[in-house]
Specification:
Order of helices and strands: EEHEEEE
Radius of gyration: 13 Å
Helix content: 10-25%
Number of strands: 6
Strand order of the largest sheet: 1-2-6-5-4-3
Largest sheet: 6 strands, antiparallel
Number of helices: 1
Oligomer: single chain
Structural class: mainly beta
Strand content: over 45%
C-alpha cells in the first residue's frame, strides 16, 4: 500500500514533513537518485543515510517499513 502522508504543525499550519511509502524494490533507485541530487551523511549507529540540501533546511531518510515497503521521509529543518 503506497501513499503519501503530509504532516502540518498544529500551531502554525505549516507543512513540516512528508512521508512517502514506496515499494521496497524501488529503494535502491530512490537512494541513487537522492545521492545524485543531495549531499549525504551515513549514520553507523542506525545504518541510515541522511540526505540534505545545500542550506540544510531539508533532511531526507529512506527506511524500511516492512518486507514489502520503505518510507522516504522528507523533514523541514529549522535552526
Amino acid at each position: 500500500m503506497c501513499g503519501i502522508i503530509y504532516c502540518f504543525s498544529p500551531v502554525t499550519g505549516e507543512l513540516y514533513s512528508v512521508i512517502d511509502t514506496e515499494l521496497l524494490s524501488n529503494k535502491e533507485a530512490i537512494r541513487k537518485t537522492l545521492k545524485e541530487h543531495y549531499a549525504s551523511l551515513d549514520d553507523p549507529t542506525t545504518g541510515n543515510t541522511y540526505y540534505y540540501n545545500t542550506d540544510k533546511s531539508l533532511a531526507i531518510v529512506v527506511s524500511d517499513y516492512d518486507d514489502y515497503f520503505c518510507n522516504v521521509t522528507y523533514a523541514k529543518v529549522t535552526q
